[in-house]
Amino acid sequence: MVSVTIKDLTKQYGTCVAVKDLNLEIKDGEFFVFLGPSGCGKSTTLLCIAGLVKPDKGEVWLGNELVTSPERDIYMTPQKREVAMVFQDYALYPHMTVFKNVAFPLEVRGEDKGEIMERVKATAELLGISQLLDRKPGQLSGGQRQRVALARAMVRKPKVFLLDEPLANLDAKLRVKTRIELKKLQQKLGVTTIYVTHDQVEAMTMADRIMVQKDGVTEQIGTPDELYNHPSNLFVAGFIGSPEMNFIDCTLIEEGNRLWLDAKEFKIPVPAKIVPELKSYIGEDLTMGIRPEDLYERESVKGITQKNALRMTADIIEPVGPYLLLHLSKGRCPLVARVKETTARIGQEVDIEMDLSKIHMFDKKTTEAII
Amino acid sequence: MFTKDRLITSLFLLLSLVLVGHFVYFCIGWNVFVSLSDWKGLAPSYNIVGFDQYLRLFHDPVFLTSLKNNLILILLFVPGTLFLGLFLAILLDLKVRGEGVFRGIYLLPFALSFVVTATLWAWMYNLKIGVINTLLGKTGLEFLKSGWITDPNIALYCVVLALIWQFAGYTMLIFLAGIRSIPESQIRAAEVDGASGFNLYRRVVIPQLKAPALSAFVVLMVFALKAFDFIFVLTDGGPGYRTYVLALMMFRWTFSKNEFAYGAAIATILFLLALVIVVPYLYLSFRREKE
Amino acid sequence: MKPLRIFGYCILILFFFYELFPFYWMFNTAFKTRAELRLSPHVTFFPHNPTIENFVVVLRRQVTAFVTPPIMNSIIISLVSTLITLILSVPASYSLARFKIKRSDNISFWILSQRMMPPIALAIPYFIMIGALNLLDTQLALILVYTAFNLPFAVWMLKAYWADFPWVLEEAALTDGCNRLQSFFNVILPLSWGSIATVTFFTFIFSWYEFLFALILTRSRATTITISLASSILETGVEWGWISALSVICTIPTILLSIFLYKRIISGLTLGAIKG
Which of the pair, C19 or C106, is modelled with greater confidence? Predict the structure, then answer.
């Protein structure tokens, strides 16, 4: 098991920048997730670590070993790096049986036959695919193929696991199940794991730490908790969490010795706790963010100290199993609230409370978080 | 409405089937029928004499030579073209600059008529003024000069060389398309798994080229059996009977010597040989498609 | 660059010249004067006085030495047989691809197997048949034979293309109020022109290049260009300039069409060969 360090990594395809100046340190044994919308360079970074793509500049370190550095003309081929990879389409060899597929990484390294047999069997046992060893990939279901791909990656006990959207081709139910199994497996083996996904739920549930990427640029690196509660900019705030965080464009004004967020349709008092941070933004355009679960219907509010009531119209009531989503609007300002139950009727007005201790503030121009 | 459309278009299908049925299957039967007769000379005779023509064939040295030449053609031309095509396809797969140009030029001979290519090779192989001998003379390799297609010892090999030239691009194309149909992630997986260069091709790529190899194999085999135009123009079977093949013999015996029944017997043999190659292949590929 | 890579390039370039040389030699010879061709053994790699004299002579010979110029015969026979093939094969393959016809797989099987048969097995019956119809040495004889020979291939190829056609579009057009013929001309045909062009190319080239049947079924009036090329070797013997010029003429239609349809021809050549 090793750490993975990336310094100033940049890769361009023609005029399209896949990764730009990426700096990253992944700790030994960590479950690290690259999260971002599709086609934003997450996979490119992964391929650079695997050695399948040569970056334009920057360094990749596996433990204490520098494996890629165009500047110093260092490039270790993927065959020599002790990393294993699982691909989105699993990339199983269709002409080989499951046994041969799993044994392949050992066979090309010229391992001893008995040893291969033993390890393939042990790995198959671990993943519950022992009864499939004689079949060919074409005869397997999606979930089974995924396991075979995992087995092939695990069998040679790599130092780093690279997983490129390994659950994307599974159906929803299986995905949830596999997610948990994968996490358990990683904890058991303790292998440094880098996992690429565009699904924020996957990232939040599995990762020790997450890097959010967009257009090849790192937006934020942090634990799931940090990303959720302290997003460092508008993109991360909007990308993490479902339903999405509500954003309200407003101007910071001073009136009667108090600071207010003026959103045209309504005015919100700035809680005393964050006044110091906001002071320098008086007169500027800001974006306020509030998560749907931090909005309440007046009747149900208990024990919230700093609050502010808004009278809004209920447009749609969306039942989502354990809770309801209230789609509200006032003038041209829409909000979504997540509530347990509601007395609201469609088209009628309802009073909404905002938990002001949970608001996020962003500079509208730079999109960076202020608090 | 629906059924009327269906009826009309099906009529076209039926017409096509009738045309094909008549011009192909009925005519093949007719040919077999002629081969069982004693028709010799210009006036048709359908006096059935059984397998006399076939018995005669197996004592005819020209037939045996032609059959042998067809087999040599199959043994040299088919594997030669397959391996050269595979080799070129793999080389082109190595992210070569100007791949499109190479591919286009390799494929060029396949776009030419056999009559044209045979003419070209006849001109290049020419003993006195052919470019090959002139170049050999100029570069001091005088001793290699040869009559090529007029030299009894090497004539057949010269034909094979020219045929490989014409078909190598085609097999290259088939193999390259096969290689390219393997998902890139599989190649990447193999690289991460530790396979590189030779191993990657031997263990991951080439085993997956069975389907294109088989289809190219059948096309080449069938061509080697039915080869006619090219040899007719390039050597006309000469020198002697050194490059005679079954199709050429059939043509000469039928249309020059008017031995219709005898020619039909040769044609039937050719047809049966092609059948042996083609039917299992088509049967396999259609059954696979159904699955 | 690694030495192995350089070695790879060397081989590729070597075969590049092997595959290109005869073709280049054809052009080189076609544009040389008679005098230059007689300079042997001093071959020249470019015509010193490029001339189209060979082409003029060859084209004049086409008119004077034959009843009808073989080029004309070839053009007429190829065009007409291609046209008939299309008229028959488009609806036939449509019906095969579109309507659930029982045993349609078997039909394609019988259709395709024909392409693999040695044409020589059909030589005698065709000769007898065309003779009986009193069509020997006529354009009609070759048109008939080529159409019958191209038809199965065209049906198979079009059916293969149409297997992947988004037929919901036709259903949409039918729902929108077109009848089947209208939907065919307004929706299906515009989206299939590429496939049809490819089929047209292959059938045209087959007829243009065909040799065996032309040899058997024609004498002088309906002789085609390939026959005139082959016979010019026998007749003129050593006039390689003329022969090369005629070769160039014979090749040009293919090359031009190939350039326009390059990608489609490539996919047409590999059709059915890749899937396992």
Answer: C19
Nearest CB neighbour to B88, from listed C15, C127, C209: C15
Interface A-B, measured as beta-carbon pairs within 8 A, has a size of 64
Mean pLDDT for chain B?
A: 86
Domain boundary among A206, A223, A239: A239
Q: Which domains does chain C have, with CATH numbers?
A: 24-64+237-269 (no CATH), 77-218 (1.10.3720.10)
What is the enclosing helix (H) or strand (E) of C86? Answer: helix C70-98
- Structure letter (DSSP) for residue A52: S
Position C113 pLDDT exceeds 80: no
* Residue-wise DSSP of A163-206: EESTTTTS-HHHHHHHHHHHHHHHHHH--EEEEEES-HHHHHHH
Q: Given an 8 Å threshold on Cβ–Cβ distance, is A108 in contact with B199?
A: yes
Q: Tell me whether residue A21 is in a domain.
A: yes
Is C216 an 8 Å CB contact of chain B?
yes
Q: Which carries the bigger pLDDT value, residue B66 or residue C237?
A: B66
* C43 to B288: CB separation less than 8 angstroms, yes or no: no
Residues of C in contact with B290 (CB under 8 A): 105
Question: Which of B188, B193, B190, B187 is closest to A156 using CA atoms?
Answer: B193
Q: How far is B193 from chain C (nearest CA, A)?
A: 22
Query: Under an 8 A CB cutoff, do A93 and B186 touch?
Result: yes
Residues found in chain C: 276
- CB proximity A260 to B under 8 Å: no
Q: Which residue of B has its CA nearest to C246?
A: B116
Q: Which pLDDT value is given to residue A35? A: 93
For A310, the domain range is 246-363
Measured CA distances, A123 to A99, A102, A113 (Å): 11, 9, 15
Per-residue pLDDT tens, chain A, 371 aa: give them. Answer: 789 999 999 998 888 888 889 999 999 999 999 998 877 678 889 999 999 888 999 999 998 999 999 998 889 888 888 899 999 889 999 989 999 999 999 988 888 999 999 999 999 998 889 999 999 998 999 899 999 999 999 998 899 999 999 898 888 888 888 899 899 989 988 899 999 999 999 999 999 999 999 888 889 999 999 999 999 999 999 999 888 999 999 998 888 888 888 888 788 888 888 888 888 888 888 999 999 998 888 765 555 545 567 788 889 999 888 888 989 888 888 889 998 888 888 888 888 888 888 889 999 888 898 87
Nearest to B192 among A78, A88, A89 (CB): A78
Q: Which two tokens stand for residue A139?
A: 């005869």
Which H or E run includes A124?
Answer: helix A113-127
Residue A162: list chain B partners with CB under 8 A.
192
Mean pLDDT along residues C32-38: 78
- How many whole angstroms from its chain centre is CA B291? 30
Strand order in the sheet with A360-363: A267-269, A258-262, A246-255, A285-290, A360-363
Contacts B192 to A, Cβ<8 Å: 50-52, 78-79, 81, 83-85, 162
**Among C residues 58-97, those touching chain B with beta carbons less than 8 Å apart:** 88-89, 91-92, 94-96
* Domain match, A176 and A297 both: no
Residues 42-71 of A with CB under 8 A from B: 47, 50-52
* CATH number for A202: 3.40.50.300
Chain C residues lying within 8 Å of B229, measured CB to CB: 211-212, 226
A84 at interface of B, judged by CB pairs closer than 8 A: yes
- ipTM higher than threshold 0.95: no
Q: State pTM to two decimals.
A: 0.85
The answer to whether position A116 is within a domain reads yes
What is residue B256's DSSP assignment? Answer: I
Task: Enumerate the residues of chain B whose CB falls inside 8 A of the CB of residue A87.
Answer: 185, 188-189
The Cα A120–Cα A138 span in angstroms is: 20
Tell me, yes or no, if C124 comes closer than 8 A to chain B by beta carbon.
yes
